[in-house]
Amino acid sequence: MADPQADVTEGCRLPVLRKNQENEDEWPLAEILSVKELTGRKLYYVHYIDFNKRLDEWVTPDRLDVKKLQFPKKEAKTPTKNGLSGSRPSSPERDPMRKSLDLSLQTATAPSRGKTVPTPKRKAESASLASQISPATPVPSLPGSTEMTQASVYPEARDTNTFNPKLNTRDDHEQLASLTTNGTARRLISSQPGRKRKANCVGTDEMIKVFQYNSPRCASVYLPPGEDSQDSSDGIPSAPRMTGSLVSDRSHDDIVTRMKNIDCIELGRHRLKPWYFSPYPQELTALPILYLCEFCLKYLKSLKCLQRHLTKCNLRHPPGNEIYRKGTISFFEIDGRKNKMYSQNLCLLAKCFLDHKTLYYDTDPFLFYVMTEYDSKGFHIVGYFSKEKESTEDYNVACILTLPPYQRRGYGKLLIEFSYELSKVEGKTGTPEKPLSDLGLLSYRSYWSQTILEILMDLKSDNGERPQITINEISEITSVKKEDVISTLQYLNLINYYKGQYILTLSEDIVEGHERAMQKRHLRIDPKCLHFTPKDWSKRGKW
Amino acid sequence: MSKLSFRARALDATKPLPVFRCEDLPDLHEYASINRAVPQMPTGMEKEEESEHHLQRAISAQQVYGEKRDNMVIPVPEAESNIAYYESLYPGEFKMPKQLIHIQPFSLDAEQPDYDLDSEDEAFVNKLKKKLEITPLQFEEMIDRLEKGSGQQLVTLQEAKLLLKEDDELIREVFDYWTRKRKACKGASLIPTVKQEKRDGSSTNDPYVAFRRRTEKMQTRKNRKNDEASYEKMLKLRRDLSRAVTILEMIKRREKSKRELLHLTLEIVEKRYSMADFGGEIMAEVLAQRALMKPAYTVPIIPLSSSAQFRLQDHMELKEYKVKPEKTEVVRTKRKYEKKKPKVLPSSSAPQQSGPSVFNAKDLNQYDFPSSDDETFPQIHSGSSEAEEENDPDGSFAFRRKAGCQYYASRVDQSGSWPWCSPSEGGLGDVRFRYSLTTLTVPRRCVGLARRRTGRGGRVLLDRAHTDFDNVFHGLDPEMLASPPHSPVDKFPSTSETNTSDRNPSPNLSQILLNIKACRWRHFRPRTLPLHRPEATGACSRRLHRGLSGTSVAQSGTQAGGTPSNSRNGPGSTPVAAFTAEQYQQHQEQLALMQKQQLEQIQLQQANRVSATNSTQGLISKTLDSISAQFAASALLTTEQLTTFKAKEEVVLGIGVNGVLQASGVYKGLHLSSTAPTSLHTSQSTTTAGPTFLQPSNVTAATTQTSSSHGTAANSTTQVLIGSNIRLSMPSPGGAVNSIANLNARHIPRTINTVPPSALKLAATTNCQMPKVTASSSIDLVPRENHDQEKPALNSIADNTMAMEVT
């Protein structure tokens, strides 16, 4: 066997050896994204299917299971992950979407697209209704409904309340399914074959967003963005929308940005392995280690340069105003317009750990809140979040990151808590910009759960009656957007329909779990230590 | 289950939800099956990432255990936190300030170089240190400057020496080192920077380009675009609305006038009835009487389809029901002359008006504003030619109200101090305006004593005075009077008032002649173009005016074609094209302003007395230097250009009610495209020789020649083309010379007729101010020319302000 790996080219899929957290060998399916040759030896950049991109890595040929090699399909329009085994769907709604996606895929490739495929619709639905615990029940939709326009969908959606009980559920499912199919179909027609990954993600993502706001009041308002982004993301990639987003819409995904380009970053005491691509100057990407000044975050090509830089840089804290300090934790506010250099350096660093962040546009419309921990050397950056000065969609966070060395220590929740404290001062409710990452989702869900449970547990009943609270009240107290409150209550399974009305029920498990979690949560934001006056950016003309 | 048979209400965010502990509700599980009735919210994650293995594992772990297990967390690439040299890298301590840190954003990093020395540099610097004085920081500063001084091209050594303040040897060493290093460098700069976007847009999809500038302001509202287009729409809306307001205003005025007319007519009818004038005899009588009061001369404007055939009785009735085409044949004046009728000499408008002017109804009508104009002053309408003549001494040059203009009442406080009034009457008693012997150029005869006066719109009027010697004066041979070449009048005692108004009891003709010749008497003769060519000049300048007005440019093409050939026939027989009413309206706009300017001019002129009077004799002793003339001409031209635009725009717009104009940029293309051939033509015509002019200045010589050669070629678009000529030639200096010559050539026929060189020069120095009629002693045969020169200037002022209003 001269070269068993000769056939292994970009786009191929095959099982690749990796160690799991228990240090056991496993052979997940992986896609070859790139091949390079280093000192006569081939290296393969692999993406493990159904694993996050941050685990992508360069592997040696001996880790490839060449026998099970799958060649790239000619029409590689398929999203790399289409809801196969191994993942547990989170909600019934997601499944019809996925399923219908698959269906539309089939029909899209077939010559007679749009032909009605008979599907046992009703049966499937009733199944989904009956079995709430088994979540993977799909609700297939007719591909014919692909042709349904959004306009025809939305009036219905407006009429029927989003939170309909069971009888309307079917309709909701149908709508949602057709909605997503619609978006997906369009994507499939227009997207380029080949290396483009996740061609459908934008459309569906937007649809999710749209659906999220699909309350009677908001439906019509939020329709335009959905259409808008679909149009803009069709076919040839164009510049992302300018609505201040630091979150990538992924329309610019190409093979370069799918691969990590920095090996290692040295920041203060820490060496970080970047998770994702970051547009640091290209000449620096070849370096084994990229050196960052711990305080101004300037990137330097060598330790010598860093040493020289440190003789000139006398910063010992982020170059902004400290608006919060309690103990060793401080928050600094940095204006993306006034302090471009730092903001850009921060974004470049953050991009290494945020997949969906985009650095396409400048940082002007953003404020950056950098959380630091003080020691005798100075205020060390722990994490940060960015925030639009003016948000059209109630976002109170654009990107949020705890640097890897500080992860899993409660700092992420602290950052989230701080972002809601700011919203409280502003007197608004807020929500993080979508899409969330996996870690983001977990962190936010955890924060929301704890925050809401804290309120529910503290509710006192006056004059012997049952304590009660409205969703709006919860939203007002916490500054958590109403939709997030509802989704959390649902996620925690607190909403029950009992004797003609909705009630919130706190199970023993929930209460115990919450109490245990709160014991571990010692890092809290103290609103008294916050010195923050929100600015009305709309009056300034400039951000 | 039977409990599911009813329909549950929607979850209401405003409705209080009772909070239960599960243990309090033992029967809850019976209702549990409808829990999922509330559709779950999306997670906000990307769909395909949501299904990722580790996330799902973590979520399920959370749900099962209520909290995360260590082995169920989402794995991430490792991070180390044990950099051994950290202490040495970040030496020293930083004490936490008591106060919250507050920082001025721009006070950081005052002048530190961005370049950081690397090991290679360090070796070089150490080596260099042995022979030269250099510190690492100094080296960094030098490299920093070199880097920042270089764009695509590297800084040269010469430039480096300018950039750096170190001594030459050090600069050369560092420069050489830098050049070598820079060439070996892969990146765009030795100071690594994030790739910038390229202007050509080629970097749209370059993943390494980051932090692009936002080209438009971030949208803060989803559904309202605050962009340029909507701004323009708002402007247009505003314009249209104000136009509508104006139109309504005018309609109101018209209807008022109609009512007034009706009342008057009724009154007349009643009067006639009471006088029993049933046959119309008394009426006819009255009208005949009025007709007798008409001036002795005949205004050479007779409407072609004159309303002479109107029966007098019919007149009143018909007037109101006149259809529009008829209406336009009637020349309208907006003002009645004052009771003291100035005696405008019939020949004073020669040569242009020497022939009967054919009044072109179309011309007038083109700029005619809706009938509101016509009927605003119905009392001025005349039914008979006599009445018309009386009311319309201006003929085709009658003042016509210009749409959108504001007209001010004459200022009483200023009206008294005319230069031609004697001080006793409150005037200035200017010598040059006293009654003096006056000889007309065409017809060439002495008209006796007359004084000049500046009339409405700057026209020069001659007030004649009766003397006992009138018959003698009339008999004087103009040629005899022409002989004395110089007559500095102001030296003479005869400038006294008594002398000029002449009660001198010497009736002897020869004595008078002698007096005149000896310049003891003021003798005024308009300085004119050479007499042997009056026709060509006149015709040409007229055409220019027509072009300027822009009327015929756009619409009456046939007429424009016809006129040049006509004009070749000579002035006597030429039915000279009428000036458009537009023109005359335009210059009326600025009456008040002009009055002021007149006074200024007069004072200036008095300062220039000597040269001014010299020119009286028809000889220009003072040579106009061509540069200043050119400048003056070009100044005129630019203003003309504006006028042209305006005229054109009004053609396009149809109406210019409130004077808000469209941007003229639209027309640029038009001009440019039409210019090229014509400019060629004009430059050719300048080269043809024919210096028949008396005056010594280059400019004027060129002028006459062009004007003559243009007698045939000029068409009504010339002005427009001249305007754009300037524009065209601006970029290329070579062409500019040519076209400036052109401009002069084209323009001066008008200028030179009336404006003495001194005045021209004045125009050059004051840049835009046009010489007035009163300037110098040259009462001209073509007084109207002056007004037209003023007009562009004034118009341009107006135009400018309008433009500013728009932007």
TrEMBL record, chain A:
Localization, UniProt: Nucleus
InterPro entries: Acyl_CoA_acyltransferase, Chromo-like_dom_sf, Chromo/chromo_shadow_dom, HAT_MYST-type, MYST_HAT, Tudor-knot, WH-like_DNA-bd_sf, Zf-MYST
Compositionally skewed regions (Basic and acidic residues) per UniProt: 91-101
Record region (Disordered): 70-146, 225-247
PANTHER family documented for this protein: HISTONE ACETYLTRANSFERASE, HISTONE ACETYLTRANSFERASE KAT5
Chain ranges of the MYST-type HAT domain: 257-534
Keyword Hydrolase: no
Keyword match Repeat: no
UniProt-recorded name of the protein: Histone acetyltransferase KAT5
Catalysed reaction equations from the record: 2-hydroxyisobutanoyl-CoA + L-lysyl-[protein] = N(6)-(2-hydroxyisobutanoyl)-L-lysyl-[protein] + CoA + H(+); (S)-lactoyl-CoA + L-lysyl-[protein] = N(6)-[(S)-lactoyl]-L-lysyl-[protein] + CoA + H(+); (2E)-butenoyl-CoA + L-lysyl-[protein] = N(6)-(2E)-butenoyl-L-lysyl-[protein] + CoA + H(+); L-lysyl-[histone] + acetyl-CoA = N(6)-acetyl-L-lysyl-[histone] + CoA + H(+)
Compositional bias of kind Polar residues: 79-90
Cellular-component GO terms for this entry: NuA4 histone acetyltransferase complex; nuclear lumen
Record SMART domains: CHROMO (SM00298)
Residues forming the catalytic site: 433 (proton donor/acceptor)
Family to which the UniProt record says this protein belongs: Belongs to the MYST (SAS/MOZ) family.
UniProt entry keywords in alphabetical sequence: Acetylation, Acyltransferase, DNA damage, DNA repair, Metal-binding, Nucleus, Transcription, Transcription regulation, Transferase, Zinc, Zinc-finger
GO molecular function: chromatin binding; histone H4K16 acetyltransferase activity; zinc ion binding
Known EC number: 2.3.1.48
Biological source species: Aldrovandia affinis
One Gene Ontology biological process: cellular response to oxygen-containing compound
UniProtKB/TrEMBL annotation, chain B:
Domain Enhancer of polycomb-like N-terminal: 7-148
GO cellular component: NuA4 histone acetyltransferase complex; nucleus
Record field: compositional bias (Polar residues): 493-509, 549-572
Biased segments, Basic residues type: 333-343
InterPro entries reported for this sequence: Enhancer_polycomb (IPR024943), Enhancer_polycomb-like_N (IPR019542), Enhancer_polycomb_C (IPR009607)
Domain Enhancer of polycomb C-terminal: 578-807
Any one Gene Ontology BP term: regulation of transcription by RNA polymerase II
The protein's name in its UniProt record: Enhancer of polycomb homolog
Organism listed in the record: Aldrovandia affinis
